[in-house]
């Protein structure tokens, strides 16, 4: 690990100009947050989100005082999506490690 850190940092611990911090250093410092860094570029995603938000507002108006039930349902869906996203992340990470392992075993 020293070799990795030395390639990115000077003896003072400051980053060399033009050098990126190592992945391990960012991980150690708690700077990696994949869930916060992923932003879909597909315009279809944003169109669907916008339409879903508009429909949610229409439903809230229709439901009146029952609108909080819709919000509770939405919150449960978001929690479920978070769990599913985590499962996808773990699967992808494990798959990447397996691919790397297989690649280095063949050398």
How would you characterize this protein structure?
With 107 residues, the protein is mainly α. 72% of the residues lie in helices and 0% in strands. It is built from five helices and no strands. The protein is elongated. The model is unreliable at 1-13 (pLDDT under 50).
Quickly list its features.
single chain; 107 residues; mainly alpha; disordered N terminus
Write the layout of secondary structure elements.
Layout (H helix, E strand, L loop, with lengths): L1 H7 L14 H6 L5 H4 L5 H21 L3 H39 L2
Rough shape? elongated
Largest sheet, in brief, is: none
Beta strand %: under 5%
Mean pLDDT: 82
The gist of it:
The chain has 5 helices and no strands. It has helices at residues 2-8, 23-28, 34-37, 43-63, 67-105.
């Amino acid at each position: 690990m020293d070799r990795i850190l030395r390639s990115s940092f000077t003896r003072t611990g400051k980053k060399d100009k033009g050098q990126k911090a190592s992945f391990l250093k960012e991980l150690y410092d708690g700077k990696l947050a994949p869930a916060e860094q992923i932003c879909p570029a597909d315009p279809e995603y944003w169109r669907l989100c916008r339409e879903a938000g508009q429909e949610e507002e229409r439903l809230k108006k229709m439901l009146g005082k029952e609108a909080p039930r819709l919000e509770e349902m939405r919150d449960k869906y978001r929690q479920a999506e978070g769990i599913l996203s985590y499962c996808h992340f773990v699967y992808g990470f494990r798959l990447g490690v397996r691919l790397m392992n297989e690649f280095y075993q063949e050398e």
